[in-house]
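Summarise what follows for lecture notes:
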Amino acid sequence: MSDESIAKRIERLVQEEKELREAEQRDRPDDDALETDRDRLRSVEVELDRCWDLLRQRRALSEFDLDPSDAEARDADTVERYRQ
């Protein structure tokens, strides 16, 4: 996977996140629809974090003249539990 393809995936996820946030506003009166929106939004946020993590790994490897293809997508649990 190239940096460009990861960046495009991020762009698509950001667009979906925006659409889901708008849907959240529309679906406020409907509890089931609202919960579905929120579940999908949580999934999109995690996937975004994973994509950003992979892109950062690739850029760090490139910066040190290492092969960016050695970067590996980490599981959601690892990415979501990073210490900031």
Summary: Residues 3-80 form one domain. The first helix runs from residue 3 to 26.
